[in-house]
TrEMBL record:
It is found in: Cytoplasm. PROSITE patterns: GHMP_KINASES_ATP (PS00627). Transmembrane segments: none annotated. ATP binds at residues 88-98. Residues 57-141 form the GHMP kinase N-terminal domain. It comes from Gracilibacillus halotolerans. The keyword Signal does not apply. Pathway: Amino-acid biosynthesis; L-threonine biosynthesis; L-threonine from L-aspartate: step 4/5. It is an enzyme of class 2 (transferase). GO terms for cellular component: cytoplasm. The gene is thrB. It catalyses: L-homoserine + ATP = O-phospho-L-homoserine + ADP + H(+). This is Homoserine kinase.
Length: 301
């Protein structure tokens, strides 16, 4: 028996939805899994070169954690795993969340845990600390979630827009991006910040991308602080905002994403690429189906 595990990437926050709103995108982490006599992770794409190749790999560590949680660590038998990823690391596109989801799926398969989607999401959020990246990578679409030890969430359909990712050639670690955030807000500031987030959720549910874009400008939670870590932020924000519904910092950054109508995105993106050739530009669609597991009965993948 062998398996293919395919996990979509994600973008999170979408402006004011800090640690609570995420969106699955059509960039993927793929694992080709076969039984073996030892644990071995083999990267097959440049973005994964240098990752741990044994039991120190994050995916194994998550799988082992889940197996141990359910008392089935003896069923977590060695596998050879070929890894392929289209997701840039440490760019705010959920690469670590895909590894968490992949590890949970691996334990679920090898240990016959028969976990439901809600079970998997609870485990992933317990590990990650918030649902905004792991939830869309698991179930797809746009997910609005809350976590206080137990996860509550809703999934919202997204149509008609493309998410244009502008990716610089440097990394930004999440821990560094969190270090610049304020420790607390006043009551007045909290009311203002939450009202922006509330309207943002309503705009997503209504598909009102223009309104969402206006709320992205008013975010109090993270973008005003994190943009200081991103030298190109103001220049790109002002430039992209001329044509996009809205522009936001993807996750902790440094990737920025512009929300653009499907019917004009290609012509606009060609101009943007010409004017800013030093960045990687990706035209991304919403992945509505989340993680996929394919069972292979015959030969190894």
């Amino acid at each position: 028996m062998s398996w293919l595990i395919k996990v979509p990437s994600s973008t999170s926050n979408l402006g004011a939805g800090f640690d609570s709103i995420g969106l699955a995108l059509n960039l993927y982490l793929e694992l080709e899994v076969t039984r073996s006599d030892k644990w071995e992770f083999t990267p097959t794409t440049d973005s994964l070169q240098g990752i741990p190749i044994g039991k120190d790999n994050l995916i194994y560590q998550i799988a082992d954690k889940v197996a141990t949680q359910f008392g089935r660590e003896d069923m977590l038998l060695p596998c050879a795993i070929k890894m392929k990823s289209e997701i840039p690391l440490a760019r705010g596109l959920g690469s670590s969340a895909t590894a968490i989801i992949a590890g949970i799926e691996l334990a679920n398969l090898l240990c016959d845990l028969q976990l439901s989607s809600d079970d998997k999401l609870q485990i992933a959020t317990d590990i990650e600390g918030h649902p905004d990246n792991v939830a869309p990578s698991l179930i797809g679409g746009c997910v609005i979630g809350h976590y206080d030890g137990k996860v509550a969430y809703t999934k919202v359909p997204v149509n008609g827009v493309t998410f244009v990712a502008v990716i610089p050639n440097y990394e930004l670690k999440t821990k560094d991006a969190r270090a610049v955030l304020p420790g607390e807000f006043s009551f007045k500031e909290s009311v203002q910040a939450s009202s922006v987030a509330n309207v943002s959720v309503a705009a997503i549910c209504q598909g009102d991308w223009g309104l969402l874009g206006e709320m992205m400008k008013k975010d109090h939670f993270h973008q005003p602080y994190r943009k200081s870590l991103i030298p190109h932020y103001d220049e790109l924000y002002n430039y992209l905002s001329k044509e996009a519904h809205g522009v936001f910092l993807s996750g902790a950054g440094p990737t920025m994403i512009a929300v653009v109508d499907d019917n004009k995105v290609e012509s606009i993106a060609n101009i943007w690429k010409h004017d800013f050739p030093d960045y990687e530009w990706l035209l991304l669609q919403v992945e509505n189906h989340g993680v996929e597991v394919v069972h292979q009965e015959a030969n190894p993948i």
